[in-house]
Amino acid sequence: MTSTALRTDRYELTMIDAALRAGTHDTPSVFELFARRLPDGRRYGVVAGTGRLLDAIAEFRFGPEELAWLRREHVVSPEALDWLEAYRFTGTIRGYREGELYFPGSPLLVVEAGFAEGVVLETLALSVLNYDSAVASAAARMVAAAVGRPLAEMGSRRTGEHSAVAAARAAYIAGFGASSNLEAGRRWGVPTMGTAAHAFTLLFDSEERAFEAQVASLGAGTTLLVDTYDIRRGVANAVRAAGTGLGAVRIDSGDLGVVVREVRAQLDELGATGTRITVTNDLDEHAIAALASAPVDSYGVGTSLVTGSGAPAAGMVYKLVARKDAATGWVSVGKSSEGKATVGGRKQPIRALRGGVAVAEDIHVEDPPVEALGPDAGRALHVPLVTAGTLDERWLGSAGVAAAREHHAAAIAELPADALRLSRGEPAIPTRYL
Amino acid sequence: MTSTALRTDRYELTMIDAALRAGTHDTPSVFELFARRLPDGRRYGVVAGTGRLLDAIAEFRFGPEELAWLRREHVVSPEALDWLEAYRFTGTIRGYREGELYFPGSPLLVVEAGFAEGVVLETLALSVLNYDSAVASAAARMVAAAVGRPLAEMGSRRTGEHSAVAAARAAYIAGFGASSNLEAGRRWGVPTMGTAAHAFTLLFDSEERAFEAQVASLGAGTTLLVDTYDIRRGVANAVRAAGTGLGAVRIDSGDLGVVVREVRAQLDELGATGTRITVTNDLDEHAIAALASAPVDSYGVGTSLVTGSGAPAAGMVYKLVARKDAATGWVSVGKSSEGKATVGGRKQPIRALRGGVAVAEDIHVEDPPVEALGPDAGRALHVPLVTAGTLDERWLGSAGVAAAREHHAAAIAELPADALRLSRGEPAIPTRYL
């Protein structure tokens, strides 16, 4: 188990140090993680990373190595080092389920703990949720654009080697069917896929020899990459090597709208009517939508997916929204900085529905109990994630990912029909503070 | 030590399986890692990640857990599992030094090994170099825009929690002076910085009380964040709390060009003439350039830096360029796919210089020895990274990062003056295949 504790901005620790000295470190506090806006004219966002964050919180410990380094670098005082050494998160976190949709202001996580205990999780929580949600939000748009055709995530090589695993996981939650990333398979139960690259074809004296070798190893049901030299000859070689029972051909270059139709006709002529066509050439949601009428059977998406398709970070922030004053009780707080003002107070979010269709994101400020809102208020969006320091097991591991994927599909089904359009627009439903 | 072996696309392993079956897995092969083009009208790119990649190669082992999962999932045959179990990279890698500049086609890594031994590193090598180089390339532009003023990397919260550490490292190599990320300090020797967030101010009954608490803990030389409520009152409170010896104020909102001048005037009026001003509000290289005439003392950059400022992946690829045929010797290979053709053959890159100024990226194909090119050909760009499986220690750890930072500064100094312009343009020097 590797400590996650130093994946943290230095100022979290210097704030703890100063709060300890001032005696304010244990002030009961409420922090909120939310996005001020959706990026780039998007109509909804998708929450992802929650299960990963819970794991990271469990491993958030300042061990001997972390403490020795902090001491040597004089990052904080000896008193603060003692406090960090004893650190365990003992507070409570509730929040949106992983896979849930979100809108501007949605209180995605509400962290209740002493000030120091809560503030120190800021960097880690944002790193995980900002990246994973950026990928999931892009993935959901690609799934919508593919209108039922399967999608595979193939972007590991276009993002950091750890982010690659997170991206595969986030895309799967948002409806992708598989990933090329083996670690995502092992760690999170994401189905993995992939057969061969151009290098394999180039390793042999001829394309046909390479295809024969691949079929000998992976069977005729494999996918052959047919564009190393000339696509028409490649398709002919593929059917010659595998027979008409060939599983699929993959095309990774050229003008796909044109090429795919030619390849389909050629496969059919050759009798390979059941052979599928998968395409993988620099796709994003718009390129996928443009192929809707082409005889494509599945898509593989790389760069644009793992970089959030134009919005590589979700823009979420983590803010103190309330603290308990010894004299006067709970006080809502929020900065008033220009263009970055924060709505203070503990919040209870509800997705208002009419006839099963989402109509608003209702954010009840000052946190009334859900029961007080009555059964018609809508679907309560918060679930317990951590209760008095104990993680909720439902959201962890492969089971958590499977649950998130299922929940995402249900949440998407509640959206009004035009929410799935790819064009730039307003959020699909308004956020109302109540 | 965590194995990095499954941070790999499935198809790398299925290719190995098929090559083993065909008896071609040990074919002596040359793979090349390069970028076909620079993103987005950029004039140069910056190589980063090399030292991290070498570490990851050292940890690239299929241990019992990895093998058990591959077996259970039937990813490859039992013969391939045996081969993977014995895997150690025993080949040779030479390449561009970390921190070096690159241009379209620059052969950044040349990997010589048996086919299977070399192909299996593809995903990992690309993940590391594509992300780290994207950040370093953006960082270098910001450094140019800041014309000597110091820059700090503060984007940990806007990228995956592991990528955050890599980003801090890459930015430092490209000339940033510090990072907020503690793990980057511990792991790579990057200087760390940071004092307090808005939450700290909101924790107290008044801004002045918060500033007093921060100064009590961090000293008057600290940086106070003055825009939680009203900047003018914030500056007054800051100087009241810390005295005229206050180290710096930080401004994180508003129209910085205007605000910074007002704050400078106010600080000077109050006698805090030595107090510096640091700004951190959604900066990128263009915003930094726009502040050139404003009295800013330093910049903190987050989102745009860690997401590559519009180019979040460097677009590098990893291709088989030569293989040894038992009968005919070395054969150059390359796919001819539309728009993605590859120049085959082992390559020797030289930066041609005239009077110390770079004039071309000369790529000698078929790899003549450097000596044969004569002393006037320019600066040879390849250094040994791995020799017969042994890592070159010079590029590892904090010492490797420091060397890369130094080398980067020297390489930038060779560029023609207009190469540092931020506007979209052609590569600063042409790539010539010789």
From TrEMBL, chains A, B:
Q: Provide the protein name.
A: Nicotinate phosphoribosyltransferase
Question: How this protein is processed and modified after translation, per its record?
Answer: Transiently phosphorylated on a His residue during the reaction cycle. Phosphorylation strongly increases the affinity for substrates and increases the rate of nicotinate D-ribonucleotide production. Dephosphorylation regenerates the low-affinity form of the enzyme, leading to product release.
Family (UniProt): Belongs to the NAPRTase family.
Q: Which GO terms describe its molecular function?
A: glycosyltransferase activity; nicotinate phosphoribosyltransferase activity
Assigned EC number: 6.3.4.21
Determine if DNA-binding is one of this entry's keywords: no
Work out whether the entry's keyword set contains Oxidoreductase. Answer: no
Q: Which Gene3D superfamilies match?
A: Aldolase class I, nicotinate phosphoribosyltransferase
Which keywords does this Swiss-Prot/TrEMBL entry list? Glycosyltransferase, Ligase, Phosphoprotein, Pyridine nucleotide biosynthesis, Transferase
* GO CC annotations on file: cytosol
Instruction: Give me the reactions it catalyses.
Output: 5-phospho-alpha-D-ribose 1-diphosphate + nicotinate + ATP + H2O = nicotinate beta-D-ribonucleotide + ADP + phosphate + diphosphate
PANTHER family noted in UniProt:
NICOTINATE PHOSPHORIBOSYLTRANSFERASE (PTHR11098), NICOTINATE PHOSPHORIBOSYLTRANSFERASE PNCB1 (PTHR11098:SF8)
Pathway assignment:
Cofactor biosynthesis; NAD(+) biosynthesis; nicotinate D-ribonucleotide from nicotinate: step 1/1
Q: Which residues form the Nicotinate phosphoribosyltransferase N-terminal domain?
A: 6-130
**Please, one GO biological process term?**
NAD+ biosynthetic process via the salvage pathway
The UniProt entry, under Pfam families, shows: NAPRTase_N (PF17767)
Function per UniProt = Catalyzes the first step in the biosynthesis of NAD from nicotinic acid, the ATP-dependent synthesis of beta-nicotinate D-ribonucleotide from nicotinate and 5-phospho-D-ribose 1-phosphate.
Q: In which organism is this protein found?
A: Protaetiibacter intestinalis
